[in-house]
Amino acid sequence: MKFRVDRDVLADAVAWAARVLPTRPAAPVLSGLLLEAGDELSLSAFDYDVSAQARIEAEVAEPGQVLIPGRLLAEISRSLPQAPVDIVTDGAEAVLTCGSAEFGLVTMPVEDFPTLPQMPPSIGAVGGGVFASAVGQVAPAASRDDTLPMLTGIRVDIEGDSVSMAATDRYRIAARDFVWRPERPDTAVSAMVPARVMVEVAKSLRGGEVSIAMGDGVAGFESVGRSTTVRLLDEQFIDYKTRLSAEWSLRADVRVAPFIDAIKRVALVAERNTAIRLSFTQGQVLIQAGGGDIGRGAEVLECELRGDDIQIAFQSQFLLDGLTGIETESVRLNMESPTRPALITDVPGDAAPAFRYLVMSLRLS
Asked: For the whole model, what pTM was predicted?
């Protein structure tokens, strides 16, 4: 095998594919990137649960395949000088040359690399910006604790041209609705997709559309020459929609950017996992934290309150995760009492909010 490729294009593709390589592979070959040179150059990684494949242009002199240690190739690729990269196989070695730099990389047996799963049938597509925004809003609420796999996923419910995404770690629920372009108008699908994979797909988007595929317990995402497949989680999930549709007697609207900045400032004196206290009165909200061994902080912002005065507390990062998902100038906090969860939404005007974030309150001491 012998080919030449642009240095930046190679480094970008290798970094993208290598992100799914397991830290502790079950077999040595799973730590490798499979490079296949033909009409184009493809780079593939697979750990039996998640696959990633990037396709890029290359000048191929001799077609072929080679399996190279992926993380090492990623480190080398991003450190190369600005010059075309030549890779040629020579026995059990892949020789990489870039300018005056040369590396001889010991290859692994291609025949031991598992066959990549087939991409399931496409069920529709959505703009990359919408997809990335929705995942960014919902994913922070997914759990990082693998002991309950259901909580580590993003629930995707598709009904015709409507898509709902949701995630929860039991302490908050984040949900986002958006419109997409289904392959069939009667499309109806529900699936649990690992959140970490959705986040990586969203990070890699560079415009265009994202094609979404589902079938045989596998989800697939494809955009701009890059494709990912992932094994789905168990479909079991909470009935989150009823929890987000409660009636609220109190409502406070606050400009979101100053609100986020004030919470971050005040939280500097809050010990880990302690509360941020919000005191809403007519025309203003008092943000407070601390009071222990470190110190205390407070800041006042204007707000529009409808209902009685209320003091309520939240874990600061949980509150910030909800606020950073807001895409309107102001955020709306829907509340019932200091001991009940609060619903954070956009200030939507006449339309129903597309993003909803339900977060548990903390007991005030």
From this structure: 0.89
